């Protein structure tokens, strides 16, 4: 496979994979969102039907309420008048908007659209789904008024369709009165809305595919027009750019280091002042709370200073490198290390040559990282550190007699940082270690 093809595939393949994943996730999310919106829409439509049914029943009840409360009428005459009113009562749904009455045994008393049911006992009547609809309506009415869904013939063709009814109880004669609305228009509206949503989702999907296709074509065409014959110069150009970048960083951090030096120093001086103040108060037999307050303030200052140092320590160039040179800067590191750990260090420096700033910084950081790893993990009592000029480069070697890490050490973040720093300036980096036999870190730095 040619280099051109590899580069084009490297550009196109992640694009296609990422687009496919994003498109799939977007398609799934759009479908889920559409389903949720349809469910909410259906609930609102059905809820509107329920409110309308309840209002119609209340209006019908108010129409017959004077008859029910007229005590001068006999039950027979009052029932006749109530049935007559409800047979004629309609609302704005044509033949759908009628009212029905059943007694609690399931005998139909009023049914304007299907008078053949009057006088028949429909207690055991079932719809197409096996639902005992009259029983359900009577049960809803007994509970103080309620809703029931079932399948019923819709006038005038009496085609079976899902219906929602609301029923209440006329307590004077223990009648169940109710009315219902067909839900076909609700489902038609839902189907229309669903079709529009699906169309929008499909259009979005097609748009994404079109954009991806156009993008892939542009990437391929661009790849074909790029002159790939210059790839042999890529490594050298990359190294040049990296070295220039490191030089720029060194120059910037040099000034930055000087600025922060005084700030951190002042924080440490303030901390020392707080500790001395606490010591004086302790000698004066001041209260425990007063002394502790000063120590807490000193602790806060130390914590702030530590945080500042941690934040900038890996990004600053030590001022000792500029003021006194690499040898003195590394000796300062060794002195600080020995004070903290009491580990003996044998140090040898024989590289008194002029090196670029980025080389000195890298060697200093390498020494710093190696000593830090020894302090944290090695449990060593002796460290041998040497920096020697050989041929056209400088060799760095750091050995300890600690517990080692393993035959093939896993690269930690410190080792990775060292290796990357050396690679950027054209150097090499090696780590050798065995359990119980210590660790050896070896690196080479080109002088030019």
TrEMBL record:
The Histidine kinase domain, residue ranges: 259-448
EC number: 2.7.13.3
InterPro entries, alphabetized: HATPase_C_sf, HATPase_dom, His_kinase_dom, sCache_2, Sensor_HK_TwoCompSys, Sig_transdc_His_kin_sub3_dim/P
Keyword vocabulary terms for this entry: ATP-binding, Cell membrane, Kinase, Membrane, Nucleotide-binding, Phosphoprotein, Transferase, Transmembrane, Transmembrane helix, Two-component regulatory system
Source organism superkingdom: Bacteria
Gene3D superfamilies documented for this protein: 1.20.5.1930, Histidine kinase-like ATPase, C-terminal domain (3.30.565.10), PAS domain (3.30.450.20)
Subcellular location: Cell membrane
Pfam family, one: HisKA_3
Top-tier EC class: transferase
Catalyzed reactions per annotation: ATP + protein L-histidine = ADP + protein N-phospho-L-histidine
PANTHER family (UniProt xref): NITRATE/NITRITE SENSOR PROTEIN NARX-RELATED, NITRATE_NITRITE SENSOR PROTEIN NARQ
Protein name, UniProt field: histidine kinase
């Amino acid at each position: 496979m040619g280099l051109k093809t590899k580069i084009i595939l490297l550009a196109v393949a992640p694009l296609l994979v990422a687009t496919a994943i994003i498109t799939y996730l977007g398609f799934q999310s759009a479908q889920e969102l559409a389903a949720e919106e349809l469910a909410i829409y259906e609930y609102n439509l059905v809820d509107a039907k329920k409110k309308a049914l309840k209002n119609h029943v209340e209006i019908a009840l108010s129409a017959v309420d004077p008859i029910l409360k007229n005590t001068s009428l006999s039950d027979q005459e009052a029932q006749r008048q109530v049935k007559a009113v409800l047979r004629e009562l309609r609302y704005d749904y044509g033949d759908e908007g009628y009212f029905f009455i059943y007694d609690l045994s399931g005998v139909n008393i009023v049914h304007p659209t299907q008078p053949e049911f009057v006088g028949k006992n429909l207690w055991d009547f079932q719809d197409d789904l096996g639902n005992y609809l009259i029983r359900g309506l009577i049960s809803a009415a007994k509970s103080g008024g309620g809703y029931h869904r079932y399948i019923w013939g819709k006038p005038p063709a009496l085609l079976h369709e899902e219906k929602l009814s609301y029923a209440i109880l006329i307590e004077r004669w223990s009648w169940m009165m109710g009315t219902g609305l067909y839900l076909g228009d609700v489902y038609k509206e839902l189907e229309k809305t669903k079709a529009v949503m699906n169309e929008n989702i499909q259009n979005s999907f097609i748009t994404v595919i079109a954009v991806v296709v156009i993008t892939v074509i542009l990437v391929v065409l661009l790849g074909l027009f790029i002159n790939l014959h210059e790839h042999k110069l890529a490594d050298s150009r990359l190294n040049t750019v990296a070295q220039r970048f490191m030089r720029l960083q060194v120059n910037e951090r040099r000034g930055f280091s000087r600025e922060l030096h005084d700030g951190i120093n002042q924080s440490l001086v303030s901390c020392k002042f707080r500790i001395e103040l606490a010591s004086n108060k302790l000698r004066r037999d001041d209260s425990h709370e007063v002394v502790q307050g000063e120590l807490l303030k000193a602790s806060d200052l130390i914590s702030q200073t530590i945080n500042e140092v941690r934040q900038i320590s890996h990004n600053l160039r030590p001022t000792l490198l500029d003021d006194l040179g690499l040898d003195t800067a590394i000796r300062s590191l060794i002195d600080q290390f020995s004070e903290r750990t009491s580990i003996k260090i044998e140090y040898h420096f024989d590289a008194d040559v002029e090196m670029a700033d980025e080389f000195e910084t890298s060697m200093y950081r390498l020494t710093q990282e190696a000593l830090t790893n020894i302090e944290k993990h090695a449990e060593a009592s002796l460290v041998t550190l040497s920096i020697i000029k050989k041929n056209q480069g400088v060799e760095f070697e750091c050995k300890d007699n600690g517990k080692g890490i393993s035959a093939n050490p896993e690269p930690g973040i410190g080792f990775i940082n060292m290796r990357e720093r050396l690679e950027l300036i054209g150097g090499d980096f090696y780590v050798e270690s065995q359990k119980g036999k210590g660790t050896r870190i070896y690196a080479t730095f080109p002088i030019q």
